[in-house]
Each structure stands twice: as C-alpha cells, then as structure tokens.
Amino acid sequence: MTTMTTSRVDARPVASARPVASARPTAARHLPSLTGLRWATAMLIFGHHLMAVEYFGGTADDVWAFVFEAGKTGVTLFFILSGFVLAWGYKPQQSAGSFWWHRFARIYPLHLVGVGLALVAAATLVPEIRTDGAVPLAANVLLVNGWVPDWWQAGNPASWSLVCEAFFYLSFPFLIRPLVRLSARAQTIVVGISLALVALAPQIAALSPVPMSAASTPLLRLPEFVVGVTLALLVKRGAWMPPRLRFVLPLAVVGYALSEAPTLPGTDVHPGLAVTVGAFALLVSSLASADAHRSSTFLARPLWQELGRVSFAFYLVHLLVIASVSSAWPDGHPQLPWRRAVLLALAAFGIALALAFVMHKVVEVPVQRWLLRYDRARTQRAATVAGVEAAR
C-alpha cells in the first residue's frame, strides 16, 4: 500500500472548477483528495472480497458480482496513487537511503502486525490460509514472496501487494531522476509505453521462461506505478492539464468495467487493462490538479481524510476479518439471502474498521515517528540548522 498524505483545505465539493490551461499548480505538497480516494479504493477491494468469500447467495450474489467482480482493480489504483504521490512529493536533495528508510517506517511495522494476525487466524478460525512451510512465510515477512507465483498469498494473503510496493520503493530513486530530466514530450511517450506494457503483461507472463504472474509479479506491475510517477511530473511542471473530474469519472467507471474484458483472440494481450490503468490515472491526476489549484473535491472533507488515513491498516486486516466472520458457515461461504448477508457484511466491516483504527493509532503512527528519529539525513539536517543558529 502506499503513502497517505493529508492536508486540510476548503472542503466544499467544487470538482468542476478548472484553472486556465497555462496556470501551473501551486506548490502544495499534500493532496487531500487522493487521501480520500484511498478509502474509496479500499471499499472496492472490500466489496470484491465479500464476493470472493460468498457472503451473498442466489440473485443477490449475481448482482454483487456484477458490481464488484472488478473490485480487485482497486490494487491497480493503489499502485498508480503510490507512484503519483511519491513523485509529487519528490525532494531531489533526499538521499536514496533516507527515502528507503521513510518507506520502511511507513509500511513495515503494520505489515508485521498483519502477518501476526494472519498466523493467529490461520491457527484458529481460517485454517485454509495457513502457509505451507517456513520458507514461504519468511519470504512474506521479508516482502519477497510475490516473486514466486506459488507463494503470492503466503503469510497475510492481502500483503502480496506490499511485495510489489516494496519493489516500487526500491526502484523509485533510480526511476525518478532520469524521468525528471525528460522533456514533457518524452514523459508522455513513457506513459504510452507503460500502458502498452500493462496490456502485454499477461502475454509476457505466459511466454516467460521464468515463472511469472501478471497479477502478482512485481516487475509486471511496475508500469502501473510508472504511469503514476510520470503523470505527476507532467502535472506538477504545468505541462499537462488533466480533464475536469466530471468528464473523468465516467471514464473511470468504463475503465473499471473493461478490466473484465476478454483478451485479444488467440493471445494473452489484454488491452482492457491498459484502458483501466489509463482511466484510473486520469482520475488520480484530475483530483490532484484540483487540490493543487485549491479547488479540492468532496474527498478532501474531514471524514474522508480520517478514513483515508486508516485505509492502509484496513486493507491489511479486512480479508482476515471477512474470512473469520464467515468461518462459522460450511466451507466459510455463508451464501445468505441479501438482508442477512448485508448484516453480516456490516459486522465484518465494523470489526475491520475498529481494528484498523487501533492499529493506526497504536502501531502505525507512533512506531513510524519513532523510526524516523533514526533517519540519518534528518539528524544531519537538524545538526546543521542548530550549528547555523549557534553561529549567529
């Protein structure tokens, strides 16, 4: 999962506001609408996993599947968001080591908690998620299990996406420097190439001599991250003005639906996925542009900000809770009439949200602050400032 950056700005929903094309964005570091979008994205994934565990039965299941079958693309949106936010806040003076330490402090403490909770769930209510062997479990703890397709859901099943994020973070210092130097035209070409690679990823996985998965191998998900990074640079430099949100939202819905489109006949090439990534990238860019031009959307409202801040913790535990709550039914698949299924889903949601708030307040925030005290770059900057002040 990715960095959550927040800010409090005018919370009125003025998403259609649009500055003149020549206006460059303000130097706003925080993009509150993207924090709110994280929560909406987490809800797509939550809905998808309710479908996968079969909370609903009969016609209600068909309706739920129609809406949330594509909910797994919420992870795609998270990857784009991650690249965009990191590039938006990029500081050329920050060393790679400092950047990596910040990312470690951001995701690793909660990751360990998630793995611990998964082990408890596997030993009690949800034995079907039990990891077969110490090596896959260790790989998950170290965030490398996604490189072996058979281990992609070892440990905490939801943390496979963190394996991708860890690879993105490792790559970011090496990607951002050449991308920043490119012209706007060249950056646009990078976006186009990345979208093509998204469509080709299933075919690459099928032809690869090394076992790969288009869904979970970090290298094949990297183009989604690169799209986010590159579009952030284009928006930030004022070289491109994203479309208004009222035009982008319908495109995002179309992209969401096309993720389930078939591959090209006789191939594993999936152009629908490229449309999904492109549409989601437009959504992220449009929301960020609104924030940068002080026209923040309803997603910048305080409630969405608070929920967005806990979305990472919620993501890590929601599937464990969904599976644990449904474990009382045969095979863990309730398949209930819609009224009872909604009540069960609300119970799972409430437990997961409460647990996420506790993890955010007790682990995520304080441990991150403690770890960042050991950032050598920050310590050196503080010492330099202190020395300058003493010399005055």
Automatic annotation (TrEMBL):
Transmembrane spans: 39-57, 63-86, 107-126, 158-176, 188-206, 218-235, 247-265, 271-290, 310-329, 341-363
Statement: the UniProt record of this protein carries the keyword Transcription regulation: no
Lineage summary: Bacteria, Bacillati, Actinomycetota, Actinomycetes, Micrococcales
Enzyme class of the recorded protein, top EC level: transferase
Protein name as annotated: Acyltransferase
Pfam families named in the record: Acyl_transf_3
Signal sequence bounds: none
Domain Acyltransferase: residue ranges: 33-356
Disordered: annotated span: 1-21
Keywords annotated in UniProt: Acyltransferase, Membrane, Transferase, Transmembrane, Transmembrane helix
